[in-house]
Protein 1
Amino acid sequence: MSKILIIAEHGDGRLNQSTARCVSCALQIDGAGADVLVLGDDCATVAAEAASLQGVARVLSVQRPENAAPLAAVLAPQVAALAAGYSHVLGPSTTFGKDLMPRVAALLGVAQVSDLMAVEGPRRFRRPVYAGNAIVTVEVAEGRPVVATVRTASFKPSTAGGAASIESVGSAAALPGHSRFVELRRGGGGARPDLQTARVVVSGGRGVGSEANFTLLYQLADKIGAAVGASRAAVDAGYVPNDMQVGQTGKIIAPELYLAFGISGAIQHLTGIKDAGLIVAINKDPEASIFQAADIGLVGDLFEIIPALERALG
Amino acid sequence: MQKIMVCLKRVVDYNVRIRLRPDHSGVVSDGVKMSINPFDEIALEEALRLRERGLASEVFVVSIGPSDCQQQLRTGLAMGADRAVLVEEDGEVAPLTAARAFLKLVEREQPDLVLLGKQAIDDDCNQTGQMLAALWDRPQATFASKLEVNGGSATVTREVDAGLEVIEVELPAVVTADLRLNEPRYVKLPEIMKAKKKPLETLTLGGLGVEADTSLRTLAWNEPQERQKGVMVSDVPALVAALHDKGFFN
Ligand SMILES: Cc1cc2nc3c(=O)[nH]c(=O)nc-3n(C[C@H](O)[C@H](O)[C@H](O)COP(=O)(O)OP(=O)(O)OC[C@H]3O[C@@H](n4cnc5c(N)ncnc54)[C@H](O)[C@@H]3O)c2cc1C
C-alpha cells in the first residue's frame, strides 16, 4: 500500500490547478488517494480548496510567515521533515515544483523522477527524455520514498466533491535565512485565460514579426476566449514576455485546441504541445515541419489569415 | 569574489535528431555530434562575463563522465575558463550522483558561486543544481535570466510560470541558467590552440569517495506515440469548416 503526500502549489491565495492534476496521478498510484501539504503564510482558503478535491484524504497546513513566498531553500526542509512515513512525495512539474522537489529529494537522499507522465505501477513510471523524442520506463528501488514531479499535461485535474479534513501542523525544521524574496513581476497574460489551463490557445512565433503585430493574436484570442502562447524565438525577440513561452524549456500545455501562427515546428516547441487535442498550423512555408505535427494545416500568410479567421468565427 | 565553478555536461548536440538503438537500450551515440549542454554553455558564459567585469578572479569548469568529456572541457577552456577538472566515470551518472561529486569539489575548492544549466537536454531532469544546493546547505536560484553580484550576495531574476521572480541570495550559492541569461560567445581558433595548454585534472568518482546512486533504474526505452497524420486545408472557410467538424466554435 502506498502513502502519498502532494505538495500544493498556490499563488494569490488560490490553489493552482497543477495540484488537482497531481491528485489524479496519485489516484493512479493508489486508489486510496493522497494527503496534500499546503505551505504558506495564510493557508486557510487554499487548504479548503485542496480539501474539496476528490481523492484527497487529508490536508496538512503549515502556516508560517517565512512561507509567504515559495523559496525552495525555505520550504524544502519543512517538506523533508513532514515526508517521514510517506512512500511517495509528489509535486507538479511547474517552475514551482521543479525548483522545490529536487531539493527535497536530495535532503531525503533519494533520486527524483522528473516529469512523471504515466503510472505503470506504484514504483514504475514513464517519463519523456530528449525533449520528448524518447520515453523511458523507470523504476524506483524498494525501501525508499519515491520523489517525483508530475507532468501536469498528462493528467486531468481531479474535480471537486471531496471533503477531506484539514489539520494545522507545526514545523520544527530550522529554516535558513540566506535567501530572500524580492518581488514577482507578472507576465503578459492579463485578463486572458491562463495558458496552462486554457481550452484553446492561440500561439505566435517569429513569423509574427513584432510586438505590435502580436495585437492580431490577442484580438483573435479575445474573440474566441483563448490564452496566448509563443515560441522561444518570439520571446527572445522581445515580442512577448517569457511566461508565454511554450516548449521544452517553457510551458508544457494540453489545450483542446492549439492554433500556431508563424511557428516553424522545432522539436523543442513541439514537445510543449504533444498532448494538445487538436493542433492547427498556419505557416507561409509549405515545407515547415510544424505541418508534420499538425492535425490541420493551412499554408498562407498569417497577416491575411488571422483577420479572415476572426471574421469567420465572430 | 574569488572563484566560480561551472559544471558542464557532455550531451548529444541539440541539432541532432536522436534515434533509439535497435535493441532499445538507449539512443544511438556512435558517430553522433556531442556538445556542451546548451544551458551549461550559458552558465559558463555568465561566469566569464563576471570575471571579465572584475567580479571574480578565477573560473574553472567541471564535468563528470567518460574520458571523451575532455573535448567539452577543452571547449570550455577555449571559451575562457582558467582550468578544468574531469571526474571520470563510464557508467550512467544520475543527478544525485553528480550533485554528490560536485559537493566534494565544492568542499575542496570553496567557490563563491556555482553556475550550471537549469537542465540537461538529454535526460531533461532539471535536478542537479537544486540537489547540490541542498547537500551543500546553501541558497539556490534556478532558471536565472539575470544575475547581479553585489559583494557577498547576488540578486537573481528567475523565469517562473507567473512571470519574473527576483530573489536575493547570500554567497556562496548555486545558480542555474535559463536560455535568456546571455548568448554564449563563439570560440576562435587561437583560443582553441591556447586551451590545449591549460590545466585539465582528472579524478574519479571512487577517488572522490562518491558512491553512484542506483535507486532509479531505467527499464525500457521507447519511441513516443506518433500523432495520426493530419490534413491540409486550402483556405480559411475550409479551416473553419474543419474546426466546426471537430466540435469547435459551433
Ligand atoms: C536548449 C533549447 C531549448 C529550447 N526550448 C524551446 C522552447 O521551450 N520553446 C520553443 O518554442 N523553442 C525552444 N527552442 C528554440 C527552437 O529550437 C526554435 O529555435 C524556435 O522554436 C523557433 O521559433 P519559431 O518557430 O517562432 O521561429 P522560426 O523557426 O524562425 O520560424 C518562423 C516561422 O514563421 C513562418 N512565417 C514567417 N512569416 C510568416 C507569415 N507572414 N505568415 C505565416 N508564417 C510565417 C516561417 O515560414 C517560419 O516557419 C529551444 C532551443 C534550444 C537549443
Protein 2
Amino acid sequence: MANDTAKQAEGKRAYLEIRDVVKKFGEFTALKDISLDIFEGEFVCFLGPSGCGKTTLLRAIAGLDIQTSGRIVQAGRDISALPPSERDFGIVFQSYALFPNLTVRRNVAYGLENRRRPKAEVEARVKELLALVGLPDQGDKYPAQLSGGQQQRVALARALATSPGLLLLDEPLSALDAKVRMHLRHEVRQLQNKLGVTTIMVTHDQEEALTMADRIVVMNHGVIEQVGTPEEIYGHPASPFVADFVGTMNFIEAVAAGEGRIRLDGVELTARGAEGIAAGTPVTLCVRPEDVVARGVSGSTPNSFDAEVQELEFLGSFFRAYLRAAGVRGTEISADFSVNLVRDLGIREGMTARLALPTERILVFAGRAGAARAA
Amino acid sequence: MQTAASPRVRPRLGTDDWILRGTMLAVAALLFVGILLPLYALLSKSFQGPDGSFVGLANYANYFSNPALVYSIQNSVTVTTVATVITLVLAFFYAYGLTRTCIPCKSLFKGIALVPILMPSLLPAISLVYFFGNQGIAKELLFGHSIYGPIGIVMGEAYYVFPHVMTILLIAMSMSDARLYEAATSLGASRTRIFFTVTLPGIRYGLVSAFFVAFTLIITDFGVPKVIGGQYNVLATDVYKQVVGRHDFEMGAVVSMVLLVPAVIAFFADRIVQRRQTAALTARSVPYQPQPSRGRDLFYLIYCSLIGAMILAVLAMAAYASLVRLWPYNLSFTTYHYQFDLRDGGGWAAYRNSIEMASWTALFGTVIIFVGAYLVEKAKGFREGRAVLQFLAMVPMAVPGLVLGLAYVFFFNSPANPLNFLYHTMTILVICTVTHFYTVAHLTGVTALKQMDPEFEAVSASLKVPVYKTFWRVTVPVCVPAILDVSMYLFVNAMTTVSAVVFLYSPDTALASVAVLNMDDAGEIASAAAMGMMIVLTSAGVRLLHAILTRGIARRTQAWRKR
Ligand SMILES: Nc1ncnc2c1ncn2[C@@H]1O[C@H](COP(=O)(O)OP(=O)(O)O)[C@@H](O)[C@H]1O
Ligand SMILES: [Mg+2]
C-alpha cells in the first residue's frame, strides 16, 4: 500500500495541493506556512498532540475556517476562498453531529433530498449506504437510540451519501471506547479501500495513524514535522519530536567523536547520521527499546556495552527492561525483550547483561533534544 | 501593505453567507429603530425646550431645583430598598423550604409562587385596597396607618416581584453542591455554622442577582404606586404625571433619564455577577438531597403554606371584589362589573385588543427573537455583526418600560419621522412590546441554541443544503420547547404590561391593562378588578395551554430527545 502511494507521488499531480497556508487567530499563529500534497485515493492522517493545528488545517481545507493566507487546490480547482458549500467534501466530526430529530434514514438522505432526485433513487442509495456501513436495518431509529459506534457509522454514511471527492474525518473514533475503536479502525479503512475516496483523518492517537494511514503528516505547533508512510515515520523519524511522539524511544545524551562515531559513557559507538557532526558536539542518540539487542552479543560485538538490569517489567507478550550502562554516568536505557529471550538468557533484575545498539538502528540528532521532544 | 508572497485570502461569500448577513441586517435594523433611535430621541428631548430648541442642561437644572421632584428620588430609593429586602428574605425561606427540606406538595407551592406573574402589577395593589383601604376588611392591622403611601407600595411591590426573586433563588439553591454539605457535616459543623459557611456563600451570586432584578423591577414599576401610592410620589409616577397630567414632555424626558440610571447600574452589576457565577460553577456538582427532619419540615410547611395562602388571598380578594355588587354594603354576587362596555376605559374592545396585541407580539416576537438568537449564536464568520446584534439584544433589559414608552412617543410622534404613520396603531404597540421584553426571550433562545451541536451548520454546508433548510428542519424542531417558552413569555407579558403602552395606545387600541388603570383612576375599582381578573384568567389559560403543548411535544419526541 505504502509503495503504491510512493509511486503515485512520483508521477501524478496531487489531488489536493496545499501551499504556504498560514492561519492566524488574532496574534496567535495556529498554522505556520503549511505545504502538502495529497494524492487521489490516499488515506492520510494528520497526527500530532492536541492543539497543534490539525483541526485548523482540516477546517481550512473544508472552508469552514478559511486560512489567513496561502492556496488550496482541489482537483485542479483553486478553492482557497470558496465557502464550504461550493467545495467538494464530506465531513465527520468527533461529536457525529447527527440531526437528533431525524431518523437514521433521513440523516443519511439529508444531502440527497436536496438534489431533486427521484424519491426511489434516494431511498435506494440510502439503503445501499446503510448496508455499506453495516446498519441495514437501523434506518427507522433515531440517533439517540444507537450506540456510539453505530452513530459514527451513520455519520460516515451521511458524509459519503453524495459521493464527495474528499472525505474529512476529525477524530472520528476518539469518543468511542477502546474495543469499538479498534474494530472501527479496521472498518473505516476497508470502506475507504472499497470506495477509493481520498481521505484525511485527524487524530492524536499514533497507533490509530500507524494502523490506518497510507501516509502520516506529523504536526507540532502549527508546522509539519514530517510526512511519510507509517514505516518511515516509525523507522526514520525526522526529528526528536517525531521520534518521541510516535512509538517509544530512548533518548540518550552523548557527544560526537568524529568520523561517524559517538562517545557514550566511556563507550564508542558507530551510528549512521553521525558522519557530518564535528567531534565534541553534544548529540542525542535515539534508539527504540525493541531495537536493543541482547542475544548473541559478546565483548567484541561492535556498539556493545555492559549494563545492569535495574527493573524488569512484565507486559504480557514481552518484558520492558530498565537498564543502566556500566559507565561513569550510568546512562539509563530501556529495552523490550521477548519472553523467549528473557528465558533463554536468564535475564533477571540485578544481573549485568551485554547489550548492543545496531549501527543502522541508531538515530543521531545534533544537540540536546530535551526541549524538542513531545510533551 | 501585504507582501506578494502571502496575499491575504479574501473568503468569497456563498449564498448562505448572504442570507445570514441579510437577515442579520434586518433584525439589527429592527432593533435599531425599536430601541436605539427612540432612546436617542428621548435623550435629545431632555435637552430641548418646548419649542424644540436646544437648551442645554436647563431642564435638568429645573428638575433638580424642584424639591418636590427631587424628593421622589429619595422616596423611590427608600421604598425600593425596603421592598427588595423584604422580598429577598421572604423568598429566601420559601425557596429554602422547597429545596432543602422534605415538605410535601413542592410543585404546588412552586406553582402558587408564580401566580403574581399572571397579573398586571395594578391588580395586587387594587386587592390591597380591599384589604387595608378605608373600607378594607383588615385595615385594623395597619394600626391607623394608611395603605395609600409607602406601606401599600412596599406590600404591592413585594407581591409583584416575589415570583421573580423566588425563581432565581430556587435555581441557585438547587444548583448547590451536596458534597460541600457532606464535608461540613462530617467535620462536625453545627447547623448555623453550615448555614453561614456553606449555604449562604453557595448562593451568593443568586442572592446578588435576585437583589438587582428585584430592585430594577420595583423602582421602574408604575402600576403599584399608581394605584396605591397616594400622595407619596416616586420616579415612575412622576414620569406619568409630567407627561399625561401636565403635558410637560421635556420634564418627563428628564425624569425618564433619571429613572434610567438605577436600571442601567443594576443591569451592568447583574452582568458582572452572572459572569462570575458561570466561572464559579463546576461541572460535576452533586445535587443536594434533603433528609427528613420533623421540626424543620413542619416549620417550613407552615411557613410556605402561610406565604402561599397570602398570595392566593390577594388573588381571591380581587376575584371576590369583582363579583360583589357594592363593596362593602351589598355583597351579593353579580357580573355587573364585567359589563365593561358600560364604563370608560375601552370596554370589551380593550380586552379584545389586548388579546390581539399579545397574539401578534407572541407570533412576530418569537420569530424575530429566535431568528436573532440563531444569528448571534450560529452565523459563523461574521463576528462584528454578531457582536452588534448581541449588544442590541441586551439593551432593552436596561430600559424601563415607562422610559421606552415615552421614548417611542418622542420618536414616532415626530412629524419629521417617516415612520410617523405607525403612531397610535396596533403595530406600534406590538413593536414596543416585543422590544420591551426582547432580552429575556433572546437569552432563552441563545441558551437553547447553545445546547445544539455546533457542527450542524458545517455538516449541512458540506452536504450543500442551504442554511435556511437546516434551520427549519433541524434547529426549529429541536428548539420547539424553548420557542414555546418564548412565545408564552411574550404573550403573558403583553397581556399584563402597562408601563410602556400607557403612552402609546389610542382610543381605537385601548388595552385591558390600561383599562384597569383608567377604571381605577375613574373610581370604578370593582370593574378595574374585574378587568384585571380577565387578564389573570387569560394568562393562566395560556400557561395551561403551554403546559399541555409542552407535555404533548415531550411525549411525541421522546424517542429522540435524551433526558
Ligand atoms: N477559533 C479559534 N480562535 C482562537 N484560537 C483557536 C481557534 N481555533 C483553534 N485555535 C487555537 O489554535 C490551535 C490549534 O487548534 P486545533 O487546530 O483545534 O488543534 P488540534 O490539533 O488539537 O485539532 C490551538 O492552540 C487552539 O487554541
Ligand atoms: Mg482537533
